[in-house]
Amino acid sequence: MAKTGSIERNNKRKRLVKQYAAKRARLKAVALDENLPLEERFDARLKLAQLPRNSAENRVRNRCELTGRPRAFYRKLKMSRIALRELASRGQIPGMIKSSW
Question: Are both 8 and 39 inside the same structural domain?
């Protein structure tokens, strides 16, 4: 189980990303538009830099929904390989069985 603080920190980042997504996208579009004057593009980059760092989408870490484990994460299932194997062993995932030979 991951530390509660690291899980909560990641959840806070998710909230900030959602909150600032539209503003960040708008400023990014202005900053990358080469048809606009250089001063306006530079001003957009300065405003983008003023936003909280944790509002950037690439700061969010994929974590297991059950345990909070940050590694060996399956995006499709939103859980780690260890949690997946545990649920499969208990028979809680339909159609999945633990392989043995």
Answer: yes
